[in-house]
Amino acid sequence: MAPPVTVDTINPKVLECEYAVRGEIVTLAQNLQQEIQKKPDAHPFEEILYCNIGNPQSLGQQPITFFREVLALCDHPSILDKSETQGLFSADSIERAWQILDQIPGRATGAYSHSQGIKGLRDTIAAGIEARDGFPADPNDIFLTDGASPAVHMMMQLLIRSEKDGILCPIPQYPLYSASIALHGGTLVPYYLDEATGWGLEVSELKKQLETAKSKGITVRALVVINPGNPTGQVLAEENQRDIVEFCKQEGLVLLADEVYQENVYVPEKKFHSFKKVSRSMGYGEKDISLVSFQSVSKGYYGECGKRGGYMEVTGFAADVREQIYKVASVNLCSNISGQILASLVMSPPKVGDESYESYSAERDGILSSLARRAKTLEDAFNKLEGVTCNKAEGAMYLFPRICLPEKAIKAAEAAKTAPDAFYCRRLLTATGIVFVPGSGFGQVPGTWHFRCTILPQEDKIPEIVTRLTEFHQSFMDEYRD
Amino acid sequence: MAPPVTVDTINPKVLECEYAVRGEIVTLAQNLQQEIQKKPDAHPFEEILYCNIGNPQSLGQQPITFFREVLALCDHPSILDKSETQGLFSADSIERAWQILDQIPGRATGAYSHSQGIKGLRDTIAAGIEARDGFPADPNDIFLTDGASPAVHMMMQLLIRSEKDGILCPIPQYPLYSASIALHGGTLVPYYLDEATGWGLEVSELKKQLETAKSKGITVRALVVINPGNPTGQVLAEENQRDIVEFCKQEGLVLLADEVYQENVYVPEKKFHSFKKVSRSMGYGEKDISLVSFQSVSKGYYGECGKRGGYMEVTGFAADVREQIYKVASVNLCSNISGQILASLVMSPPKVGDESYESYSAERDGILSSLARRAKTLEDAFNKLEGVTCNKAEGAMYLFPRICLPEKAIKAAEAAKTAPDAFYCRRLLTATGIVFVPGSGFGQVPGTWHFRCTILPQEDKIPEIVTRLTEFHQSFMDEYRD
Questions:
Q1: Chain A nearest CA to B373, separation (Å)
Q2: Which of A3, A87, A113 sits opposite B290 (nearest CB)?
Q3: Is pLDDT above 90 for B481?
Q4: What does the pLDDT read at residue A1?
């Protein structure tokens, strides 16, 4: 008998979906790693250097002590009033754990919570947003989720009715968006970021692409903006953001603001402004613009990817639509409570005067300043390579250099039935153990080639990466130079 | 300008989806609770007694100490080698935490893991399945998920192409299934459990419903079986399970086995057998049957709902289909690491000789024997009510009594534009504070009325629930008796 399920009989939307960040190159890297473990001299390198994914702690970044203290105490509250605990934990972590437990009905950290998340934690997050923006935030607008990804899926599920519904997405984009749109059967309407102006986001380009989509019978429902940019690392200027808000208001689009890198800004001339703050400062309120802001505990200086915490702040939707969002959230009951707690902590870290404040701020500043140095070193290294240009990483965790590949290399890639950028990344990996993600996984102007490189390897690894990359690139160009 | 999103312009699949466990009655209960908090004598009861959801710790069930010790230590590993830690934590929890940390690359509990979950934890889970079933389990078949719900969604997403694809589901069913099928745009093909034979699952009924669906042009792709049953509480006999396996094999259906209540069996004459064990004991292997088993940390004696841990074991699918399941899992990166760790712990709890074994088994047995007593007390109470009959809860966490409502009550419900069972539950809630879920949220034979009641309120609350329920029922019947 034929098997009940074959690739020809599964949901074609699943087949269409792609997710390059964990795609082919990464699978190859994992295989090479296993080969090295079995036979240390199997390849011309001793270890795989993963620069493919924004996963800081996998590369040695240490968690913020205060956050972990609070999580541990909330996981095992019965030690809270033991005397040994005073010796092991900071006084303010103990105090914070008590506060959080008091916000949880019955202090039950093992219970399902309200489907939007524990009310007291949402109060804390709303207060954190208010402090950040200087404008009010409503705890009832917060939906806590297992990282930002499920929140993005939830909004796509709500907005997409068929392939006739379109979502405006930056190109290059973070492939969660293309994957989620494909899974929900919608149409990705691309708008191109301008590499020549540091990955600038031009409203004229948005308008052009919107009109093109309309002319094809597509109803564009929302605009995705990733700020700071992934994979492009730019930080939007406030003026630019105002134009974007105005555009969404004029065109009746939901603004989906991916703001998960809000703490990751590395240049003094740029500052993060939330789209909520920008729209409120323009005088636009609930009735003027539908805005969803995504935040995650996986990024920032904390990088707590494995905790799967995050939230979306949903503003400017009618009550009956909000009820539908709540219903979808309720089908999965709630997000994990540790992730919820952590989301509240990143929005209200220790303050001046708290016992942990000094160690906390030293840890935070150490991580952020090191990330800034790593970004600069890698940017400079890329810009020294023949045929490579690289914009500054003003924020986020990535560089997205452009590589001008020789015709001969493009032909060799064609012969190997692979995209030229994937060909380069594969060669780089097998020669050096360095894992980059080909630009084709994020989208790029046709005929241009890029790759994404995270700035996350520990600082003492960076010189080695630069050396290996430079040597490889030299020999690759020697082999294929026209 | 019109708002960008209205209920008329959202995805109609979202509108169609329903989830009664957190539906209207629960919203009303939450409102009543707020009123009582403001004004203690606002209603004729002092507290809301939530019997609507399988959320044990929200009603006072305590977590298993060993599990929480290990979680806390993994959250804050830097205390592991401090001397105070020996005084606060059991020796085997410290040992187990070290073991787990050694299984995590770089001991980074804050990193994204492999998208199926940490390999070492999957090894532990596979070993636990082997010990349970006496048949081999492959760690590569395990997909760790944030509770069982996302795993169910993932399979529905894979299997459902359009409304022409059907999924056979028990009626009554747990509304996650109807909600997930609606969200993915498929057709729920009902099969009725036989209340007269203790919610028996007859293969003749499966065949009949399969044929009916086929005659309507529906391609039935999978059979959902919930064992022990939710909301019905029955435990399937092994012979019955063999017939079900044979049916799936014959008809080329994927068997989706919801086995999250595998530890919740309360009667000595019944035992839980996994469908994997049953099919392997029939000599059916990978090539013979496509089987997915769902497990969760939210149920059992642990009841760790807030941790959102769970897994599915996926067997009998071709490698290229498995790759597609992996891809969908990878779009969300990974499930939360604490939930992953807890899933490994419930599948490998302390063993005889471990320091924690005695306290662990006392906690476990205390919870399970108390649940058995509560189930029996509530079952007896329901069976004493006029016009109510209630099957035994052999397992799971629920009773699903049938109520024969007087014609006058049905007319009153019609006048109030509500289903008769919802009418009864609403009256019960406003009179007593007790929250049941109407049977219409789970499905029932047309013209019959039921409600679901969990057996989870703490034992000292049960007499009060019985008294209040009995008094209410008496007066309700007095009011409406024909």
A1: 22
A2: A3
A3: no
A4: 64
